[in-house]
Fold:
Amino acid sequence: MTNPAPRLLAVLAACLMALSGARAGAAPGFDALLDEAAATFAPPAGFAAAPVPTVPAFPFDRALAAPDGGLTVAYAVRPIARMEIDYNDPHSSAPNPNHIFPLVYGSLVGLLSAGGHSPSREFPAQEARARFNADWASATAFDLDPAVSPDHRYGFLLALHKNARADVYVLFLFSDPAKAKGRIDALLTSLKFRPGGAADGR
Structure:
């Protein structure tokens, strides 16, 4: 049996990234998180505010739904500066906040998925930079755990990482893959990082 500790650690860290600001006062709003992450967001035209999907240990920040109900999109922005890692291992040091995004991503897919095959695609580094101004990007499709959303059968998760800036997660929820594909393609870059940053030397 594999050791679940790294996956649990990653999920905990992701949760703490969102909530650490609440200890000093009110939790940051979505627009404030975008500013901290140096990210841009273009809301999908015609979409309206929707209930945020229920994901244990990983609260998304905002959700929007298409007028016909066929697609819901949820967003999570996790600035690196807000990351707090609860790490209690006397034999090794805590992981670098810039290095845990693959663990968070894998853990989040596990939380969202109903099990079964989850095809993934990691974008080549050049494409991640060109499309999202990111240092890393990956996407996974899966059957959705009904507890996350009773209104949709499938999920598609896009994850972005920008060194020293933030991790971003965009979750698409739908039931008709053929109808949703074009919509998802059109919205894939609606949330992305601004050009520049530590990894670009600026």
Q: What stands out?
A: Confidence is low (pLDDT under 50) at residues 1-5, 16-24, 198-202. The two ends are 44 Å apart (CA to CA). The longest helix spans residues 5-19.
